[in-house]
Specification:
- By secondary structure, the chain is of the alpha+beta class.
- The chain folds into five domains: 2-121, Immunoglobulins (Immunoglobulin-like, Sandwich), CATH 2.60.40; 127-323, Galactose-binding domain-like (Jelly Rolls, Sandwich); 327-378 and 391-440, Sandwich (Jelly Rolls); 446-797, Glycosyltransferase; 799-908, Maltose phosphorylase, domain 3, CATH 2.60.420.10.
- Helices cover 23% and strands 31% of the residues.
- Strands 21, 22, 26, 27, 28, 29, 32, 33, 34 and 35 form a ten-stranded mixed sheet that branches. Strands 2, 4, 5, 6, 8, 9 and 10 form a seven-stranded mixed sheet that branches.
- Helix 5 packs parallel to helix 7.
- The radius of gyration is 29 Å and the shape is globular.
Length: 909
């Protein structure tokens, strides 16, 4: 009996323990234990977990420590806020490790929950004075654009016990560093790409574990990268300077309280490396015969090396990297070894990806292995190089001989699926080759799948397009001689990007360069960083939908992450850009200057077109005026968010005038637009450019247009993101689904049916007859059209956030089935935790599973088809009980509000 009582007691106690509030995922500035923050008031966030429903935080208490000593306590604060809470203690010190934890109270009377410890490590708050290191260059004659990669080294000793050691590193170029022959950090292509002449980022590394007692050595390689290497289709070099340079500082703290600093100076030695060249576009040439074994260790004899040259370059533009750096991710083995009709040996990795190939080879010294990277095979099965334009995209390895050799490139990246292998005699062993992906270390957050296999592949293509193009900068494409941060591509895709991955810090970093590159007149360049300056695309002018990224993306990041600071920091830039537009506009009509318009919309001559159809070219200035209204609306919201009352009123009035100007210029008295295109009607409807009494007829014209193209889309870069969402908003659900599920050209699924594994630049980058579009502008990894992913998450899976409860504090769950899709599921990891929606149609039965994080609430729209249907939750008839509030009905949906927890709704006859 006692034994039974004891078992029951244990079960009871374990149940209580399991139901208690748990505090997890402590983040500083959105990152787990970040090293190298130069933010004076870093913000703290945490996730709460509980098996109970309707759990909310009622209070918190944050404690921050240094060396185990409490330096700040928030004391107990009565608040639901659990994300982006700023540090408010004494000034933080540079290069210091801090720990923090939080205590939380909830509304369920749970015992106070205490988190484990998290940490963050500060960078240098005044690098211009705190970095005493000197810039050093190689001084080697062959160290030029397209030239060799030099390597640097220095020996030093530690005579005391090391408590901690922190390295601060940057370069005018790209660097890789080692201590005692071991790599510093796991990031690649550092310091990344910024507007180098205005903002050069340095990285902070905890290298305590790399030092040994006694003799040590530091070594590094320095390549051209984006700083001096070829950029753009005009083969421009030396964009930011003619000399690459390294800046290195190692701060050592000893256990006795003393300190020592190892810096880059004229005591460093230099030598050519085995890298005869290493370029972003062209790839790398590596001669393993030139390797100097142990060159970055303390025992190496560097007497034949030359002295580094000290350079008087400024340190006034140094900032810490507060974002996620480029790292390695997925790996792929070849799925096939092909012999092309031309007799070439080709590895097929099965996925269009961005990165490089690791290989293991053996042979005699001097043998040359050449790897050439392409995205596609042509209709005959041969490699398709033409769309690379001037980019060689080729890695060459010259063997040293003497056994198995392993090689991977260092300062380049390629966009590819297929790799031609030259220089290996006999059959190739595919196990000796591995494709490695490289992209910014943004954490995957979103998942989506449904009952349609083609749509699931589309989702995969969207995500792979993002992976391949989010390498420190949101590039347009990763393979040809371009790879630039086109603002239009980033703008249209930004909300989709925020579903798939956490891009909060990624865009915050890039937006600082948007502001830095802004022209004095407020215009925002078309590419950021602006390497096109001085060319046709590099004038002090702006284009709607492209330059608008300076306003649209900060707002989208606020909505997705609840990050008010990003709007605060960008607001001066946003306001300056809007002032530029207002000056460019005449009588509130922006119809001046160059405009991209609805870039790459449907043209009949693209693929011989749809029979009997005409091109879908929308008047550029009609598009421009719609986006003018859009950005003013967002400026109104931004000003309101920041409490700028006068500017809020000013922008509201401006938006009203812009819409009136649109109606006078582009709308006939009968409600017809001057451009009878899908994009024209989509944008007019999406941005409320038409008076209420003309919207129904505009919707009909839009649907009629789509029907006239046999349910094919004809939109370009600016119309496509809003096509399905505007149709859904105005009740044309089945039309939206028919467009999504169309699988012949032009459509989203046409590339999928053609075997695409990423999103294409054009609707017909590869034509129905398997030939290719104009190779001068045909990318097979271009994410812009993947912006439909936003609608797939919001309307198919049904996951969204209210703007007034940004960052998923107040969630919207509203799945809208259609198109014969019988099930769909989606989820997103928010700063509050996981939001999940999973629905299924089985005959007349509709079921909906939800997951709502602790400390949030959700308004749920449950699809109903009439008053005779029964709705249950957890098997019980739906009622305002157990954390559920029934709020009524709205246009075919039963509306309920729920707190945190898991829910299972069923609707049936």
């Amino acid at each position: 009996m006692k034994k039974l009582y004891f078992i029951i007691l244990l079960l009871f106690l374990s149940t209580i323990s399991f139901a208690q509030l748990i505090v997890t995922s402590l983040k500083t500035e959105g990152q787990l234990s970040p090293v190298g923050l130069d933010i004076t008031q870093p913000r703290f966030s945490w996730v709460l977990e509980s098996e109970k429903r309707n759990v909310k935080q009622t209070a918190y208490e944050i404690a921050v420590r240094a060396d185990g000593k409490l330096i700040w306590s928030s004391d107990k604060v009565s608040s639901e806020t659990s994300i982006h809470i700023p540090y408010a203690g004494p000034a933080l010190k540079s290069a210091t490790r801090y720990s923090w934890q939080v205590k939380v109270w909830d509304n369920q009377g749970s015992k106070m929950a205490t988190s484990g410890e998290a940490m963050f490590h500060t960078a240098l708050f005044k690098p211009e004075t705190e970095i005493t290191a000197n810039w050093i260059s190689s001084g080697l004659k062959a160290d030029t654009a397209y030239g060799i990669v030099p390597q640097f080294r220095k020996s030093f000793s530690t005579t005391k016990k090391v408590k901690s050691a922190t390295a601060f590193i940057t370069a005018k170029g790209l660097y890789e560093m080692q201590i005692n022959g071991k790599r510093i950090g796991d990031a690649f292509l550092t310091p990344g790409w910024t507007a180098y002449n205005k903002r050069l980022l340095y990285q902070t590394y905890d290298v305590t574990q790399l030092l040994v007692s006694g003799k040590n050595a530091v070594g590094g390689s320095l390549a051209n990268g984006w700083f001096r290497g070829e950029l753009g289709w005009e083969k421009k070099t030396n964009t930011y300077g003619k000399q690459t340079a390294l800046l290195f500082q190692l701060n050592i703290n000893y256990t006795d309280g003393s300190k020592e600093t190892i810096i880059s100076d004229d005591s460093w030695k230099v030598s050519p490396s085995p890298m005869l060249s290493s370029e972003i576009y062209d790839g790398e040439v590596y001669d393993a015969r030139l390797e100097q074994k142990g060159w970055a260790t303390s025992s190496f004899d560097d007497s034949k090396w030359t002295k580094a040259e000290v350079k008087d370059f400024t340190k006034d533009i140094l900032f810490a990297s507060n974002h996620e750096l480029i790292t390695k991710h997925e790996t792929f083995k070849p799925i096939k070894v092909l012999t092309t009709p031309k007799g070439e040996t080709v590895l097929d990795f099965g996925q269009n990806l961005v990165g490089w190939v690791q290989m293991k080879v053996s042979g005699i010294a001097g043998n040359k292995i050449v790897l050439s990277h392409v995205e596609m095979l042509d209709k005959h099965g041969n490699l398709y190089f033409d769309n690379l334009r001037n980019a060689k995209a080729q890695d060459t390895y010259i063997m040293k001989g003497g056994g198995v050799e392993t090689y991977e490139p260092h300062f380049t990246f390629h966009g590819f699926r297929y790799v031609r292998v030259e220089g290996i005699s006999g059959a190739i062993n595919p196990d000796n080759f591995t494709a490695v992906t490289l992209y910014s270390d943004m954490k995957a957050t979103g998942k989506f799948e449904c009952s349609n296999a083609l749509v699931n592949q589309l989702q995969k293509n969207i995500q792979w397009g993002q992976r391949g193009n989010f390498l420190d900068v949101p590039t347009d494409c990763p393979q040809r001689d371009e790879r630039l941060g086109w603002t239009g591509d980033a703008e249209v895709f930004s909300r989709t990007a925020a579903y798939n991955f956490n891009v909060n810090n990624f865009f915050a970093k890039w937006l600082k360069d948007v502001a830095a590159e802004q022209y004095p007149n407020g215009a925002i360049p078309f590419v950021i960083p602006d390497i096109l300056k001085g060319s046709f695309f590099g004038r002090p002018e702006s284009a709607a939908g492209w330059s608008d990224a300076g306003i649209i993306i900060p707002w989208n990041m606020y909505v997705a992450y609840g990050d008010k600071r990003i709007v605060e920091e960008q607001y001066p830039s946003m306001k300056a850009y809007l002032d530029y537009i207002r000056k460019a506009a005449k009588n509130d009509l922006w119809n001046t200057g160059f405009q991209f318009g609805d870039w790459l919309s449907y043209r009949v001559d693209d693929s011989k077109g749809l029979i009997g159809q005409k091109s879908a070219v929308t008047d550029n200035y009609l598009v421009t005026q719609c986006f003018y209204a859009y950005v003013v609306d967002l400026m109104t919201k931004s000003a309101r968010l920041l409490g700028k009352t006068d500017e809020t009123k000013e922008y509201e009035a401006l938006a009203e005038r812009i819409r009136k100007a649109f109606q006078q210029e582009y709308v006939t008295p009968g409600g017809r637009l001057i451009s009878e295109t899908q994009t024209a009607y989509v944008l007019a409807l999406q941005f409320d450019m038409l008076p209420e009494n003309l919207r129904a007829s505009a919707v009909k014209r839009l649907v009629d247009n789509i029907k006239s193209y046999n349910y094919h889309l004809t939109t370009g870069f600016l119309g496509t993101p809003f096509l399905t969402s505007s149709l859904t908003r105005f009740g044309e659900i089945e039309t939206a689904y028919k467009l999504l599920l169309q699988d012949t050209y032009p459509s989203w699924l046409f590339p999928v049916k053609m075997g695409a594994t990423t999103i294409w630049e054009r609707w017909d980058s590869q034509k129905p007859d398997s030939t290719f579009q104009d190779p001068s502008m045909t990318s097979f990894n271009h994410y812009a059209y993947g912006a439909v992913g936003d609608w797939m998450y919001r309307s198919i899976a049904g996951i969204d956030t209210k703007e007034e409860g940004a960052g998923y504090k107040e969630i919207i769950i509203k799945p809208i089935p259609g198109g014969g899709i019988t099930s769909a599921s989606g989820s997103i990891e928010t700063y509050y935790g996981k939001v999940g929606s999973d629905w299924k149609i089985d005959g007349n039965k509709f079921s909906l599973h939800l997951e709502v994080p602790v400390n949030t609430s959700a308004t749920v729209f449950i699809l109903i088809k009439g008053s005779q249907q029964k709705i249950t939750e957890g098997g019980a008839v739906l009622a305002s009980a157990n954390g559920i509030q029934v709020q009524g009905e709205e246009k075919g949906f039963k509306v309920v509000k729920v707190g945190s927890g898991k829910y299972h709704f069923v609707v049936e006859e």
